[in-house]
Design goal:
about 140 residues, mainly alpha, 4 helices, elongated
């Protein structure tokens, strides 16, 4: 587990696992970015206790600005020596994120019913689970 999860491996089977983990990670980060774009379009802040009663422009601004440190933290840890631990944490948080969306699926201000929104949300959860299991399984083999 001490090795960088994205660092190139030497053996053929290691290279295949490395490539799979890298593809899953890139796909998941991409899905997260597009989901957050969709969240802005669908005014997700209307489901947040603190933001739902604010003026539209204020809530939009706060919701959008919060994503600057969020993505800065993600990018920082993806490029840091603590990357592998962060990947486990990120997968668990994205699974929790999916479960929260599932729990709020009947919320009166939930506008994530489109096939695209659903694919983004549940794709994040599914890929996170696969990535988490692959990392855990591979670390057991090391």
């Amino acid at each position: 587990m001490g090795r960088n999860a994205i660092a190139p491996r030497r053996r053929g089977s290691d290279t295949a696992v490395y490539l799979l983990l890298k593809i899953l990670l890139i796909l998941n980060v991409t899905l997260l970015i597009v989901h957050e774009m969709d969240a802005i379009r669908r005014k997700e802040w209307k489901m947040f206790i603190v933001l739902k009663d604010m003026k539209e422009e204020t809530a939009y601004s706060i919701f959008s600005l919060v994503h600057i440190p969020l993505f800065a933290i993600i990018l920082f840890f993806l490029l840091s020596p603590a990357q592998q631990i962060f990947l486990y944490i990120m997968d668990v948080l994205l699974l929790a994120h999916t479960l929260v969306h599932f729990g709020f699926r009947k919320h009166k201000n939930n506008d994530f019913a489109s096939p695209l929104s659903q694919a983004l949300i549940y794709g994040l959860g599914g890929i996170s689970l696969i990535h988490l299991l692959c990392m855990a399984f591979y670390s057991l083999l090391e």
